[in-house]
Amino acid sequence: MTQPAPPATTKMPSDQRKAQIIDAATQLFANSGYAGTSLRDVAQQCGMTKAALYYHYPDKESLLKSVVSTRMTRLNDLMEQAIAATNSDDPMLRMRAFLLACARYIDQNRSGWVVSSRIFWSIAAISDRTEMVELRDHFESLLRTEVERAMAAGTLLPENPSLVTRLLLSWLNYIPRWHKPDGKLSVEEVAEQFLRLSLNGLLTDRTT
């Protein structure tokens, strides 16, 4: 839940103020949609004037881009850390680490995931998506590299690695649409089951 806005007179360093604006915008975009959120709404949520918000973000599009860029950069950092933390060269272990870490990130940042994965890419009018495309491609490449390595090792059947990567990411993207945080299964348990269901049809050793 978004914390109460500080008084308008509260002074913050620029980086802290931007972080506050991004957090507020993320929640508002997720709850009310892009069209249903105004810069005035964001400014009020942050306890600042609309003119002060313009100093950091001159329009709503630049704010949305900043939200997505911030979330995707953080996501990529976390995925790289999760893969490195396996201390293993086994691509299957590294794939699992990536997918479970991503599931945890989704669970802890559902509003940010909705904005980054659904709202931003659904708005055709957004200009220049170059930075976000590069961040998205890097995210996907981290998983695809391990899929390719598993195929090269003979652990997975030699299917199209890009399609297999998208198969795995598709159920990750779908989790926030139906999974309840207080449901019977945790998000990690759901991810484990989806991973098993996805890969059982790809394993060369069908007895596993």
State the gist of this model.
The chain is an all-alpha fold and 208 residues long. The chain is built from nine helices and no strands.
Count of alpha and pi helical runs: 9
Oligomerization category of the chains in this entry = single chain
Shape: elongated
Give the class from helix and strand content and strand pairing. mainly alpha
* Low-pLDDT segments, ≥5 res: 1-9
Q: Output the radius of gyration.
A: 19 Å
What is the residue-averaged pLDDT?
A: 90
What sequence of helices (H) and strands (E) makes up the elements?
HHHHHHHHH
Structure description:
The protein is 70% helix and 0% strand. It is built from 9 helices and no strands. The chain has 208 residues and is mostly helical. It is elongated and about 60 Å long.
SSE diagram, text form:
Layout: H1 14-32, H2 39-46, H3 50-56, H4 60-84, H5 91-108, H6 110-122, H7 130-152, H8 161-178, H9 187-200
Structure characteristics:
single chain, 208 residues, mainly alpha, 9 helices, 0% strand
